[in-house]
Design a protein that fits this description.
Elements: E1 16-19, H1 27-32, E2 37-38, E3 48-50, E4 55-57, H2 71-83, H3 102-116, H4 122-130, E5 135-139, E6 144-150, E7 157-163, E8 169-176, H5 198-205, E9 210-213, E10 217-223, E11 228-235, E12 238-249
Parallel strand pairs: 1-2
Antiparallel strand pairs: 1-3, 3-4, 5-6, 6-7, 7-8, 9-10, 10-11, 11-12
Helix pairs in contact: 2-3
Length: 254
């Protein structure tokens, strides 16, 4: 197996070679060791996989002209990213009529994803898609440029994108607009989808056990004061879902 692994066209991190078809030999073990990515029995869309971005990467792709997607498309992309597994929208949140078609949302998600992973530098592409940033700063300790964008679907938040000196996107997250009040969080019942950020929840309830951690996703576990397990799910640091499981007591964590 060749040691050559190109960098992801979006985040710059090293990619994994993609293997497809019936796994042979120690393929499963190689995937566990982080050496390859198994794509299943169907031919994959590209030969490389970025684990942090959870995406196939075509390192030869190049966008022929200006971006064809815009801010509304990106909002649809984020919605699909947040609720792909649940196959439903958040409780208590009203969405514009144009965003309710789940099939159209899936198609838009794929179109935006293809666009963002087909051009370098990806960091500058975000401004083409979302418009001029409302705030720019520098995280000197990490050597990152920070661009914050206003997304109408999430008033009270900015969508912050960090880029390195090569133009790669290092992280994306929601942050509270300066001066916009954060919610009063005293009990789990105060939590609602989209009303709090991960740092705010941990400031209110203390560090919580991690249920899972991925590049843009976090799952935390707590209780509701009545011994019931409560799972909190975040996407890009924004609380997206609260799941109360009365059949699974907190003792199950121990």
């Amino acid at each position: 197996m060749s040691d050559f692994r190109p960098g992801c066209t979006r985040c710059g991190r090293t990619t994994l070679p993609v293997h497809w078809g019936f796994p042979a030999g120690d393929a499963f073990e190689a995937e566990e060791r982080g050496e390859i990515h198994l794509a299943g029995c169907e031919p994959p869309p590209a030969a490389w996989w970025c684990e942090p971005c959870q995406a196939y990467i075509d390192t030869s792709a190049a966008r022929p002209g200006p971006t064809t997607v815009g801010l509304a498309d990106f909002e649809q992309y984020l919605l699909r990213d947040m609720y792909m597994l649940e196959c439903k929208d958040p409780d208590g949140v009203s969405l514009p009529d144009a965003y309710l078609d789940l099939t159209a949302r899936r198609q838009t998600w794929q179109r935006v994803r293809d666009e963002m992973f087909s051009v370098l530098p990806a960091f500058e592409t975000m401004a083409e898609i979302l418009g001029p940033p409302v705030h720019e700063s520098v995280a000197e300790a990490e050597g990152l440029r920070l661009h914050a964008f206003s997304l109408p679907l999430w008033p009270g938040y900015w969508f912050e994108v960090a880029g390195d000196d090569r133009g790669h996107v290092v992280h994306e997250r929601f942050v509270r607009v300066p001066g916009h009040p954060s919610p009063r969080l005293e009990t789990v019942s105060d939590l609602r989808p989209w009303n709090a950020l991960l740092p705010e929840v941990e400031a209110a309830f203390g560090p919580l056990p991690r249920n899972f951690i991925q590049q843009f996703y976090r799952g935390l576990v707590t209780n509701d004061g009545q011994g019931r397990r409560v799972e909190l799910y975040f996407c890009r640091d924004l609380l997206k879902a609260i799941v109360i499981d009365p059949e699974r007591p907190m003792e199950a964590l121990e």
